[in-house]
Amino acid sequence: MINKYLIAFLVTFLIVGSSSAQQFHGGIMAGLVGSQVAGDNFSGYRKAGIFAGGFVSLDVSEKSSFQLELTYFQKGSRENPTEKNGYLSYIFRVNYIEMPILYQYKAGGFIIEAGPSAGFLMGYYERDIYYNVISNEEGYNKPARVTLQINVGAKYKITPAIGVGIRTNNSLLNIYSKNQTGDVHRIFDYGRYNDALVLFMTYQFR
User: What's this model's pTM, rounded to 2 decimal places?
Assistant: First the structure.
């Protein structure tokens, strides 16, 4: 139910951003994700995914603004079978609806942005190195329903309406419900953490 409220909230902001005074701006965004999970012993941004959603920004000065987004975000971890690893394969897919709140600093056509985001779990799938679907097993350590991330990135406006950007998205809390062997420490506690790199495009409504 909370996801319906979030979507309705963003749609309302997009309408307001498109029709209100010029300090409000609304738009859409989409891109590709490369991700890994810190702590699962499979390093490398090998898990591909998609990133898509909408945004509303509010200019607070000539060079500064705040931006609210609502995005669908695919993350996870992957180990592809090779001769080196004995042809073992692992896959972890986890999908979120995320709501970032970003501060943006404008310098010419460039925009530097940073801020936190809350993530709400939509679905998941995990298969171990022996091709067993462990996410269906009884007592499976399920991903946490709510996550917290920090986002840092940069965008460049190709035209007044179209932009391209790159962003990192890193978990601050354990993405699983319980601790497990191999957990690493990050800021607050031990756990496993999503790390994602996003390449995306934006379109701002006029």
Answer: 0.86
